[in-house]
Design goal:
about 290 residues; alpha/beta; 7-stranded mixed beta sheet; 11 helices
């Protein structure tokens, strides 16, 4: 059954990827109408997340962010498919490094220093990985969750590795980073996953008790690689800028939970500034804080 679904869907995905950008975004407007106006895909989850995160906003403001979010989600969905066929020239036109970010990464490359990247589901992280691999001097490794459907997992792998990025399954992260230690690498973690509550760092994030994945902190303190926060700002529809700031030069010198708090607060500030491009349909707050936390 999985194979049948894949072979029925894959021609449609490639057809979407071949659409010129004006037609791609026109189709995205149609998909928005279906997802938001007709089906209401996870709309109750999005609205509740927004209300809890922004209690100071009235219902009109919440609904405006919700609508803008669904417009963006549809764009993101189709932009991801576009990765299958987009040219290098077009990719670099639509997703660029800020001058400061490029200077920061080139500095560490000149020192032959590997780095750890931490980011959230904010902006088009798929395109950012492509641009990093095309422009950056570090070999980019992306930590990811393999999909259950093997064929779609292979499709996503092809899209993400097309311009030179390499992927590491989450369960193999530390082992792979140790084996790659001799090279000049940048390993990217998406920090706003939903970890198991008993193994997480708990903090207040967007006005709610929130578990934070501790992998970034644990691994960075062991390897003592500089930790850089990467932000994928949306400049306008279909155009992004990779921005970056150094969080910690020597993580081994930090105290428990310091780094987790730092990258969480930085992401929170970005979401408050540009809320419509964060992944609100993710069930980020499905766990309750354990009594001992």
């Amino acid at each position: 059954m999985e194979a049948l679904v894949y072979f029925l869907v894959i021609p449609f995905i490639y057809l979407i990827s071949l659409l010129p950008f004006p037609l791609l975004y026109g189709f995205s407007n149609f998909v928005y109408f279906i997802f938001y106006r007709v089906v209401g895909y996870r709309k109750d989850v999005v609205l509740q997340n927004l209300r809890n995160s922004f209690p100071e906003k009235n219902e009109a403001a919440i609904n405006k962010i919700c609508s803008d979010y669904y417009h963006y989600l549809c764009d993101l969905f189709l932009e991801t498919f576009k990765t299958l066929t987009i040219s290098e020239k077009e990719m670099l036109k639509r997703c660029k490094f800020s001058p400061d970010a490029l200077t920061l990464f080139n500095k560490y490359a000149a020192e032959n220093q590997s780095v750890i990247l931490v980011m959230g589901h904010f902006g088009n992280w798929e395109w950012a990985g492509n641009t990093f691999s095309l422009v950056g001097k570090h070999q980019l490794y992306v930590i990811y969750h393999p999909l259950r459907n093997k064929r779609f997992d292979q499709l996503m792998y092809r899209m993400r590795s097309r311009f030179g990025s390499r992927l590491i399954p989450m369960k193999e992260t530390y082992k792979e980073m140790l084996s790659n230690r001799g090279g000049l690498n940048a390993t990217a973690f998406i920090s706003d996953q939903t970890p198991q509550p008993n193994n997480a760092y708990w903090t207040t994030f967007l006005n709610q008790d929130t578990p934070v994945f501790k992998g970034v902190e644990i691994i960075s303190r062991k390897l003592n690689f500089p930790v850089i926060y990467a932000r994928i700002a949306r400049i306008k529809r279909g155009f992004y800028e990779i921005q970056a700031e150094l969080l910690v030069e020597k993580p081994a010198e930090t105290i428990d939970d310091q780094l987790s708090e730092m990258h969480t607060r930085t992401l929170e500030a970005d979401i408050i500034k540009q809320p419509e491009i964060w992944l609100w349909s993710h069930r980020r707050w499905k766990h309750k804080r354990p009594a001992h936390q």
